[in-house]
Structures are given as structure tokens and as C-alpha cells.
Amino acid sequence: MNRTINEATVKRFHYDGHEQLRAHLESYVAAYNFARRLKTLKGLSPYEFICKRWTIEPERFIINPIHQMPGLNT
């Protein structure tokens, strides 16, 4: 994991200070964890698992999780 973070952030970008590095690392780790496929979820990412459960049991959810997808709102 440390090598993945280093190659994706520290070795690829120049940072003016520790705060800028810390902010970029937080956003990278959040995106990495969001998209990572987990064995305990049978190979699904957490977002895919939530969407799958929503299609099976929509009464358990207050809002549609598909509308909470990160990225551009197009």
C-alpha cells in the first residue's frame, strides 16, 4: 500500500507544503478505498455492494445510492 501511495502521489506531484500533501493524500486514500474490491463483499467494491443491496431491498434505504456517485454531475 505504501508503494502504491508513493507512486500515485508523492513521486508524481510537487507540493508547496505539508498541508497540501496531507489534503491530496486524504482524497487519494478515500478514492482508493471507495473503489477497492473486497473479498468479504465477494469481489465487489463498497459502492457496488450498496447499489446491489439497494436493488434487492430498496425499503432499507432513505435515498437512492446511485445519486450519491462521486465524480462529475453530468
Short description:
With 74 residues, this protein is mainly alpha-helical.
Could you explain how this protein is built, in words?
51% of the residues lie in helices and 0% in strands. With 74 residues, the protein is mainly alpha-helical. The protein has two domains: 35 residues; 37 residues, no CATH class. The radius of gyration is 16 Å and the shape is elongated. The termini are far apart.
Strand content: under 5%
Low-confidence stretches: none
Q: What's the structural domain tally?
A: 2
Helix fraction by DSSP (H/I, runs of at least 4): 40-55%
Features:
mainly alpha; 51% helix; 3 helices; 74 residues; 2 domains
Write the SSE topology.
Blueprint: H1 2-10, H2 18-35, H3 46-56
Helix pairs in contact: 1-2
